[in-house]
User: Fold this.
Amino acid sequence: MRITKKKVLGTVAVASVVALGAGSAYAFWTTTGTGSGSGSVGTDAGFSIAGDISPALLLDQARPFNITVTNSATFAQHLTNLSFDFTPSNASCLKAWFTAVQPTVAAGGVEVAPNGGTQVFGASLTLNNLTTTNQDACKNNTITVSYTAS
Assistant:
């Protein structure tokens, strides 16, 4: 039988594969392990809220006003409720003489963008004209408005 170059190359190739296969046997150990890690949760940054009633209140004239809610955080915050309360500077000017209409936040709330703000509409305050009551105590009063948001 004649040995050709092709046969020699084929034999060398087969021998190489067998040699590599024999050298690639492996072993392993089974093992177990444990570990732990930690993280933290931040908190909200709160809103800044402003809204002035202008012009001055007069008897039986509703004064609608807009309220600006500002988010100074670097992440969006969700506004779901906004309300206001008020206090006349003269204690003889009774809160019962006023009608307050609370602002309306959209159903489901509003996302206030990072470092952004939004306006909330629908708030108003009226000094009711009580024809049988002297309301002079309300003249030249300052009305302090406070806001609550969540």
